[in-house]
Amino acid sequence: MRLRIGWIFNFCSSVLYFLIFFQNKLYGDAGLQVFFALMQVLGWLHWKDQSKEPLIFLRKLGFDGLWNCTLCLIGCTLLLGVLLSLGTDTDVPWTDAFCTSGSVVAQVLQITRYRENWLLWILVNLIYIPLYLYKSLPATALLYAVFLGMAIWGWIQWNRQLRASGISLKPSPSEQ
Length: 176
Hints:
about 0% strand, mainly alpha, single chain
């Protein structure tokens, strides 16, 4: 149960942040919160209590997985950026589009237990912090600074767990 409690808190915060982001014309982020709320339910179901197992099953992406995630991120950013530019009154369509797309890809990687989710969360949070300061949301910027620290900690911890499990952190020849 202890591994799953975070999904409940994240669900509640997604609902609250939907309202905050919509009011501040961060429409991509507002829509992202709907996605996050749904993903929290899936995360709750997918991450069953593993107290009987010493190691949560973690994975790492190979070259093909990284390539596919990169293409997805670029494609989603371009599509959402155009939609936000042409269809909304936001003053930050491309930043909103990139961060929203990056968050979707990172969330999917996290739920499916790929360690690279943390690297993408680090990148996205580094962009979100100044974005929220620009939008006069200092408390949210501070929260995302905490998320940045959590993402760095997650990267370190998941790599330690992978090393402890004996899984090589170097890509195998088939992943290069």
